[in-house]
Write a structure and sequence with these properties.
mainly alpha; about 0% strand; about 80 residues
Length: about 80
C-alpha cells in the first residue's frame, strides 16, 4: 500500500488574498454603477423639469454622464485575465 502525500502550497494564502481583493474591487465597482446611474438620471430629470435648461444644468448633466462613462470604462480586471 502506498500513501498519498499532499503538500501545502506556500503561495496559497497570497493567492487567496489576491482573489479576495479582486472580488472586493469587482463588488465595489458593481455596487457603484446604480449610484452613478441614479445621479445622472436625477440630474437630467431635475434639469428638464424646469421650462428651460440653464448652462449650469447642462454642465451638471454632462459631468454626471462623464463620471458614469468613466466608471464603466474603469472595470477592474480579474487576476486571471491577462493584461494587454
Amino acid at each position: 500500500m502506498t500513501k498519498s502525500v499532499t503538500y501545502m502550497d506556500d503561495h496559497q494564502p497570497a493567492l487567496e488574498a489576491t482573489e479576495l481583493l479582486s472580488s472586493l474591487k469587482q463588488g465595489i465597482w458593481l455596487l457603484c454603477i446604480p449610484a452613478w446611474l441614479f445621479g445622472a438620471i436625477e440630474r437630467g430629470a431635475t434639469a428638464f423639469s424646469h421650462r428651460s435648461v440653464t448652462p449650469l444644468d447642462l454642465l451638471q448633466i454632462l459631468t454626471a454622464a462623464f463620471f458614469l462613462t468613466s466608471w464603466l470604462l474603469l472595470k477592474p480586471r480579474r487576476s486571471s485575465e491577462p493584461t494587454v
